[in-house]
Write a structure and sequence with these properties.
Elements: H1 2-12, H2 32-40, H3 69-72, H4 75-84, H5 118-129
Helix pairs in contact: 2-5, 4-5
Length: 132
């Protein structure tokens, strides 16, 4: 029942942030293995192009290395950074992976669509949260 309530909440209301965190999950509990795929795969987040993580190659150096990120940030803080990093760091080069409003120069095929869906965000949060 709780999972259904979370899905309903995510479907009916915009993502609500509190400070530098989004406390309410966007979907059911994330799966770290699927989150690793989101992190690595070009067709998904492809985070590895900018961020380094031990055991993941190739690794970029545009963004900070993410080893230990799960010990430094809560799941809610990780979620905010994936959903829309500009709410925490306005000049970030990282895209807002789960935002559709206020974006500039979006190709017509992607207008109104998020880069990652709610479940992919939660899977990525589970993966990053496990990087202790």
């Amino acid at each position: 029942m709780k999972q259904a309530a979370v899905l309903l909440l995510a479907a009916l209301s915009p993502v609500a942030a509190a400070g530098d965190a989004i406390d309410v999950p966007l979907a059911v509990a994330g799966d770290a293995q699927r989150g690793r795929a989101v992190f690595l795969q070009r067709e998904q987040g492809h985070c590895v192009i900018c961020h380094a993580v031990s055991g993941a190659a190739p690794a970029g150096d545009v963004g900070p290395a993410l080893d230990g990120i799960g010990a430094r940030l809560t799941a809610a803080q990780l979620r905010q950074r994936v959903v829309d990093i500009t709410q925490v760091k306005p000049d970030a080069a990282m895209p807002a992976f789960h935002r559709t409003e206020g974006l500039q120069r979006v190709a017509a095929a992607y207008a109104g669509k998020t880069l990652l869906d709610a479940q992919q965000v939660e899977d990525l949060v589970a993966y990053l949260g496990g990087l202790k």
